[in-house]
Predict the 3D structure of the following.
Amino acid sequence: MSSRTNRMALFIDGFNLSVTSKVLGFDIDFRCLLNEFESSGVLLRAFYYTTVIAEQNSTVRPLIDWLDYNGYTVVTKAMKESFDDNGRRRTKGKISIDLAVDAMEMSNQIDEMVLFSGDGEYRRVVEAVQRRGVRVRVVSTISSQPPMIADELRRQADAFIDLLALKPVIARAQAK
């Protein structure tokens, strides 16, 4: 076993994690999530990425504020709204590039990256940080039908953690 301290960073795709936990039937207690990973190494940074609709009082705003004050680095991107020729509302906004850039920038400071997303578009950034010597764990689920993780991302990761296995330690207690 190496005497080197395990320096890690969390990269949380907020929308993806939210959808995955809802499919599994629980809400995340973000304080417990932070505690869980702080106990397994030196947590240098916990990034939380999400899009927000600038003109509206977003339902995600209280969560963003709480995370910002409680140890997370929150990265937001304004979601753009438009209407197509038929009058249907369209939204556009992705945080994947922001997450990828931050992961590459942090890769020379960490030994391990923990990615909370099942989105296959992250396979290339996982591969790139691995080439820099960083071990990558991906957190998503195969416990749903269909699975919430892209097969190519799961194959690329050094380790896969099913979010359902973390439920006992990171699920928010239900109000009675």
